[in-house]
Write a structure and sequence with these properties.
Length: 151
Amino acid sequence: MKKITPFLWFDTQAEEATNFYASIFKNSKIVSISREPNGKAMSVVFELEGQELTAYNAGPEFKFTEAISFFVNCETQQEVDELWEKLSKGGEEGRCGWLKDKYGLSWQIIPTALGELMGDKDPQKAQRVMQAMLKMSKIVIADLKQAYDQK
């Protein structure tokens, strides 16, 4: 068992949600499912890209908020596009790379290029990239680079 494992509280959809997440991320799997006597999943241990998590069916008392989100570092625009499309379907698109999936869980789908361009030593270039990003929902690397290259 890992020292620290994120624990996700669902009403009744823990098994459905974990299967959904595992179907989206390539290096993912369901590790174990604890079931109630009636066969319904009580908790599901799963991995997404090597990160172990636990999903628990605990009732409707608590909901997800943006106070907790999963940051996904994407190497390519294709990866950004694919994850954005799959995770936002049935959910809600936000600003600046944020979205909520159909279960209400918040995700940040962020290309590595954003950090690289915003980390430039030239503050004007970095500021132009920031301003371009603030206008976006899904982050588009080509648009960030265009802002970076402006004179």
